[in-house]
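Hi everyone,

Forwarding the result from last night's run.
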Amino acid sequence: MSGVEVRPEPLDSPVALELIAALNAELSRDYPPAQRFHSLAADEVAEGSGAFLVAWLDGSPAGCGAVRVISPGVAELKRMYVVPAARGRGLSRAILSELETRATALEATRVVLETGDKARAALALYESAGYARIPCFGAYAASPTSICFEKRLACWKNPA
């Protein structure tokens, strides 16, 4: 897609903080406090553990997403978001693709994620990208508004 670049950004950068604040505000409108899962720490997306990515559209930050390793071979996607003005232009798919690439580089063969039951566009994205619904896990297991997915990735192979 022309004019789109997805690249790493420090979790504490002004750009990342602005996108995360916008995501949190949107989640706050749709879900009660007990149904919001905002946690993501800088060490979880540090080199070798994960990544926080920002999608840039024509030079402006327009979306984000993160991947973190949660157990050997398993990575979790977090904080997927595209600003309303940039939706419908393929940014979420570009972010998702790059997050899957990063997960594979982290030796993950399985990616899991949680989204909310009101996130129709996210549900459609994950299903169209080959994700299958699974029972909710971890903190999401008791959430009545959570829907969890997984996708098996191509096996990671050490090029050495």
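Residues 107 and 158 are 9 Å apart (CA to CA).

Cheers,
N.
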